[in-house]
Design brief:
99 residues, elongated, mainly alpha
Amino acid sequence: MIDEPIEVVDGEQLVDGIPVLADVRPIERLPMAPVLPAVHAAAAAATGFVAGAATLAVVRRRHARRLARRKPGLGLDMLPVAGSRTFLVHVHRIGRTEE
């Protein structure tokens, strides 16, 4: 770029810079609302729940992949069932009654 003299007409101002499209004004800060400890506790609980659910999903998927890679054969789940019985159990507590 060649430095050539620029003609300035009366009433004009020569400025070396970028154009400003808006008026300059200070930016106002928004007031900060106090955060309650209950909000922090709820956020921590939700984050912990999501992290636990994600971990459980990853572990289950890895376990399912490991089972799928096993060699086909006679596993414990593949044994023939000779019969099954259902038992109903009653539990009685012996002792003094609470009054």
